[in-house]
Amino acid sequence: MIGSLRGVMLDRLPKGELLVEVGGVGYRVAVPTGTLGVVGELGAQVFLHVHTAVREDAIVLYGFSTREERVCFEALVAAHGVGPALALAILSVHSPAALRRAVVNDDVDALTEVPGVGRKTAARLVLELKSHLDLPDYASGLPSPGGGLGEAAAQAEVRAALAGLGYGADGVRDAVRDLPEDGSVEDLLRAALRTLAAAR
Question: Are residues 122 and 108 in contact, defined by beta-carbon separation less than 8 angstroms?
């Protein structure tokens, strides 16, 4: 079982894979887009937290820049009907913190932002992840000290408002992802609109 890799990044392969050389051996590692953005240039030293999947026909490595990403990936693939490809797609759209907020707040709309995830799948995922993820705030039924419940609800309102204004799903996702962690719906909506305007 391979739990981590530290080596030199030799190549970025198609379909979101990295080729990492460790001790003269090159390992192909599938990664989410968030990890692709932080691993640096070719030839750079890289460290990845790894989940090893053993199948009948292959051993596949999935790599993550943080331990928390790997924990969320493993929780996702433990859910019914979620394979590694869909788990990577979810983590490419939502950070671990954003995924936990969505689960804690039953934010089905947030999960439907992932390509290939419909409302029924998203609703089932929210229910299953409550048992697969470590969610102390959910277990206690209380919001986190940082006001996580309010933050997720505010972001959901902003998403709905932007969709109502005619913005596409990709633009809405990018704008909401860059929002600050706190603020009123009005302030967050203004910030999202500024982001969308700057992207034009």
Answer: yes
Whether the CB-CB separation of 26 and 10 falls below 8 Å is answered with: yes
Assess contact for 48 and 55: CB atoms under 8 A.
Answer: no
Sort residue 4 into left (φ over 0), alpha (ψ -120 to 50) or beta.
beta
Give the sign of the dihedral formed by CA 188, CA 190, CA 193, CA 194. Answer: negative
User: Between β-strands 45-54 and 4-13, what pairing exists: parallel, antiparallel or unpaired?
Assistant: antiparallel
Alpha carbons 68 and 120: distance in angstroms, whole number: 26
Cα 198 to Cα 178: distance, rounded to the nearest angstrom: 13
142: three-class secondary structure by DSSP: coil
Question: What size, in residues, is the chain?
Answer: 200
Give yes or no for residue 18 having a pLDDT over 90: yes
pLDDT digits (tens, 9 = 90+) for 62-110: 999 999 999 999 999 998 889 999 999 999 999 888 898 888 888 899 9
pTM: 0.67
pLDDT surpasses 70 at 3: yes
What is the CA angle 97-103-105, rounded to 5? 100
